[in-house]
Design brief:
By secondary structure, the protein is α+β, with helices and mostly antiparallel strands. Helix content is 38%, strand content 12%. It binds flavin mononucleotide.
């Protein structure tokens, strides 16, 4: 598959840190080689693997916040331009560098490009969306029906992100008392992907209006694997400045101060 073959392109552009020209953003393979040199025969627990961790320069910091604040969920602004494999691999590598409970890395990424597959998936969305619309009434239902809530056919690349809950064996460090931690880890991978996509000029939309069984059937996903996210990706020239659901009157951002509690729970009991 071309996506795997082009893996070598990943390390080809390695931006330097402005603060630390000695530090390079590396491909996994480069990091692996460097680490092997550092640790030699010793185990990975050796603290000699520590590196300096200075704050980012102002422009680097601004770039991180820019990605966070200007990231949007995209449904309709996708351009038809193909996303090159090496760019997609950069995004997936960013996702693969997310934190995970016990370093379990429970995710997989099913990349779906074929229009006929995306059409089948859109049909599944469409049926589920009709059911969803019926759950609202009156004006809320008309607003719901006016919203476009997916870009499955318009975005040239779709990715189904899954979580293999059996990957670390029965007992996983950190998941011993909360079994959901593997799912949360997978969501971290999706957020990494989302932010990296923004930096690449690629929009991403998360579609959750499906019957799980439909996606499972179309994508041949076994029962033991959890479906965490269905994502639509493609280049964009324009993004909403605020969440589209706010622009279209569905909801608005809650003030931050209502979200922060001091020392203990201060919300409704
Ligand atoms: C778990 C999750 C599921 C979502 N599912 C959908 C969806 O099915 N359809 C949709 O249009 N947006 C979906 N979204 C996007 C949200 O509507 C969006 O993040 C929110 O309105 C805020 O907008 P912003 O992401 O542009 O800041 C989902 C987001 C998350 C995190």
């Amino acid at each position: 598959m071309p996506l795997e073959q082009s893996g070598k392109a990943l390390g080809s552009e390695e931006p330097q840190s402005e603060d630390r020209p000695d530090i390079t953003v590396c491909s996994t393979r480069t990091v692996g080689r460097a680490l092997a040199r550092i640790v030699g025969d010793q185990t990975m627990t050796n603290t000699s693997a520590l590196a300096q961790a200075a704050p980012f320069s102002e422009s680097e910091r601004n770039a991180v916040y820019k990605a966070i604040y200007t990231r949007r969920d995209v449904r309709d602004q996708f351009l038809p331009d193909p996303v090159p494999d090496e760019v997609l691999l950069r995004l997936l590598d960013a996702a693969h560098h997310a934190p995970s409970v016990g370093f379990m890395q429970p995710w997989n990424f099913i990349v779906i490009r074929a229009p006929e597959d995306r059409e089948r998936i859109w049909q599944a969305f469409s049926a589920a969306n009709e059911e969803a619309a019926a759950m609202f009434s009156g004006e809320r239902q008309s607003t719901y029906r006016s919203l476009k809530l997916e870009g499955i056919r318009k975005a040239p690349v779709n990715i189904c992100v899954t979580c293999d809950r059996t990957r670390g064996g029965e007992v996983v460090l950190g998941r011993t008392h909360n079994s959901s931690m593997d799912l949360y880890s997978t969501v971290c991978a999706i957020q990494n992907l989302w932010l990296a996509a923004r930096a690449e000029g690629i929009g991403m939309g998360w579609v959750s209006i499906f019957h799980d069984a439909d996606l499972r059937d179309i994508l041949a996903i076994p029962d033991r694997i959890e479906i965490v996210g269905y994502l639509c990706l493609g280049y964009v020239e324009q993004l909403y400045e605020r969440p589209e659901l706010e622009v279209k009157g569905w909801n608005r951002r809650t003030p931050l101060e209502e979200m922060i509690f001091d020392g203990k729970w201060q919300g409704d009991p």
